Amino acid sequence: MRICFGRGFARRLLASCLLIGGLVATPLNAARADDPVVPGTGTKIDQVGDDFEDEDWSYIFNGEKSSEEIDGNTRAPAGRSTNGRWYEGIKRGHPDVIRRVPTPEGGLPGSEGALLLQSLRTGIPGRISRELQQDDFVCNVHYRLKGMVPVWQSPSAVVRVFLPPVDEWENRTGPHFAFRVALETTVTKPRTGFLAVGSTTEKETYWPGMFIEFTSADGGRNPNDYAAIRVRANRRGGDYISKQIEVTGWWTLGISVTPDGQVHYYARPGIEDLRPEDRIASEFPYGYRAENLKTFFFNVCNGDDGRTWSSEWIIDDPSLYFIEGRR
């Protein structure tokens, strides 16, 4: 289904490309891509990811979700899939609906099962914030591989995502869904405390990715509904719109990390494999150079008003790849 867009989107996209945190930039900005790797290149790691073809696929919620990032409460034990490939995000909890469903029309050849992710209460259980909140659905990479994937192996993650028709989206301006990776780097920080001098190095985890963002028509500045992919993040930590979403239905998204520590973002409508021309951004998010990939995950967002469900997001064949022997 094609989405109707007005001139306001083009102006907003241009402004986002030209001015990011006060810096002149484009989606492929001054952080030039050094031999970017198309996501899906190399060897697929069968120990992680999922095809959702098992008719008995199920998820154990284990009680109320975690909201550690908001109130410090993890509410253990965490939720998990029975096949051991997915688990609840400890920072924000899992989506309220995690259910295998028939693959929507036009999906991958031979696919009969996909996964529905949807949420109503995305904040603290039992409370309503009426603010943007999000849930996390995390791929069990670190534990199933017994470690992280170093960037010299050019790890990449790919997923097919089914975007519902526009009239079925939550009628809210802001982020609705995200596909992200957890990366590790080493940072140098000044020592703290009384009479502290010098600096110290420590490991830091950060979470770049792509957000599917919707702007609802308001009859004024935004005369038409429109959707776009927002990239997180540039060198200064700023997010920016990189690609307009002109059609709903199936999309293929991918993220790769190259040995120089740079993150590359890819997106195209349809289910076909990603190509070099599908790259929408390359960045050193927050000015970091990645050293290891820890996992990939999905966010489901809504307004947490206790009444309005998030949009329905269906994913299929989320996969992780690496290039063997590359240094």
Description:
This protein has 327 residues and is mainly β. The protein has a domain at 7-52 and 141-299 and 306-322: Jelly Rolls (Sandwich), CATH 2.60.120. Helix content is 6%, strand content 39%. It contains 3 helices and 21 strands. The chain has helices at residues 7-18, 68-71, 141-144; strands at 19-20, 23-24, 43-44, 59-60, 80-81, 86-88, 97-102, 113-118, 133-139, 149-150, 156-163, 174-190, 199-206, 209-215, 226-232, 240-245, 249-257, 263-269, 279-283, 292-302, 313-322. Strands 6, 9, 10, 12, 13, 14, 15, 16 and 20 form a 9-stranded antiparallel β-sheet that branches. Strands 3, 7, 8, 11, 17, 18, 19 and 21 form an 8-stranded antiparallel β-sheet that branches. Strand 17 and strand 18 (263-269) form a beta hairpin. The protein starts with 6 loop residues before the first helix and ends in a 5-residue tail after the last strand. Residues 4-33 have low confidence and may be disordered.
Beta-strand residue percentage:
35-45%
Mean pLDDT: 90
Residue stretches low in confidence (pLDDT < 50, at least 5 long) are 4-33
CATH topology of the domain at 7-52 and 141-299 and 306-322: the name is Jelly Rolls
Main β-sheet: number of strands, strand sense, barrel status?
Answer: 9 strands, antiparallel
CATH class of the domain at 7-52 and 141-299 and 306-322: Mainly Beta
Shape estimate: globular
Radius of gyration: 20 Å
| Shape-level CATH architecture of the domain at 7-52 and 141-299 and 306-322 | Sandwich
What would you call the structural class? mainly beta
The share of residues in helices is under 10%
H/E element sequence: HEEEEHEEEEEHEEEEEEEEEEEE
* Continuous helix count: 3
Count the strands?
Answer: 21
N- to C-terminal distance = 43 Å
